[in-house]
Amino acid sequence: MALSDLNLKIEGSKCVGFLGPNGAGKTTTMKIFTDMIRATRGRAYINGVSVHENKRAALERCGSLIESPEIYPAFTPLEALSMIAEIRGVPHSVRTTRIDDAISEVKMDDWKDKKVGKFSKGMKQRINVASALLSDPDILILDEPTSGLDPRGMAEVRDIVKNLKQKDRLIFMSSHLLPEVSEVCDEVAIIDHGKLLVYDTLSNVTSKFSGDGNSTTVEIGLGRPVDEIMTKRVASLVGIISVDKMDSRNLRIKFTGGIDAQERVLAEIASMSIGMISFRASSSALEDTYLNLIKETL
């Protein structure tokens, strides 16, 4: 059985990372949500509409990218997206605008008239993401969108997903890359053997399951190089256990407490005016959480 009593309800505008080992049921879940396969029991709903009973209405405001499809190499992005828009029934009155907007969102304007056969894997994947945007969706379902890409391609697609978050969309994204999830996602759902192990905010999950329930680890990015004085100022805050310099512009901070302590630490660091530009749960903390949870199910 691919899934077993999986009960997952996701609401709001955010990015949710869907994690689990190979064979855990991630792609199966996404295929059920998009009616590519049917569950033997249970139901899938999008915006309150049953996907299996009224597929068109349920998926009307939903875009998906499942197991990245190939694009005809002789097509240009404009030709490929025009064909997809026609197949999906995008109205003629908005078709050109939707295609142009989708190409712009994936930053492929300069390549829209070039043959896809000459594109890198990362560029092709950006066009695949564009195809999921043709319906101007409120919900995006992405199945490992950076899988098989080189580091540059992964970074490009990851940046696109981060930008998509800024337009009041719900993004449900499976991934094997824990640092990617830590950087992009607001919440995380972890499954194994078809069962949901945990679903919560990234900070709550890592705080509760990383192996040290009394501490939290976060990473902060700075707009200017880290110096010793800056590090000592952060280390002097109440509850800070350690401050490690990851590179010239990033610090990893471990402190006592959970989400309440994180809120306080964030506010105090921000008040220091040291140039903080990002603040996220540590990827190492998510890795600890993942390994602890999956280990328990073996």
What does this protein structure show overall?
- The chain is 39% helix and 22% strand.
- The chain is built from 11 helices and 12 strands.
- The strands form 3 sheets. Strands 4-5-6-1-7-8 form a 6-stranded mixed beta sheet, with helices on both faces.
- Helix 4 (92-105) packs across helix 5 (121-132).
- The longest helix is centred in the last third of the chain and has 15 residues, at 283-297.
- The mean pLDDT is 89.
Explain the layout of strands and helices.
Blueprint: E1 15-19, H1 26-33, E2 45-46, E3 49-50, H2 55-59, E4 62-65, H3 77-87, H4 92-105, H5 121-132, E5 139-143, H6 151-164, E6 170-174, H7 178-184, E7 187-192, E8 195-201, H8 202-209, E9 215-222, H9 228-235, E10 240-247, E11 250-256, H10 259-271, E12 276-281, H11 283-297
Parallel strand pairs: 1-6, 1-7, 4-5, 5-6
Antiparallel strand pairs: 2-3, 7-8, 9-11, 9-12, 10-11
List the defining traits of the structure above.
12 strands, about 20% strand, globular, 4-stranded antiparallel β-sheet, 11 helices, about 300 residues
Short structural summary:
With 298 residues, the protein is of the alpha/beta class. The protein is built from 11 helices and 12 strands.
Mean pLDDT: 89
Largest sheet: 6 strands, mixed
Q: Could you give the order of strands across the largest sheet? A: 4-5-6-1-7-8
Count of beta strands: 12
Strand content: 15-25%
The gross shape turns out to be: globular
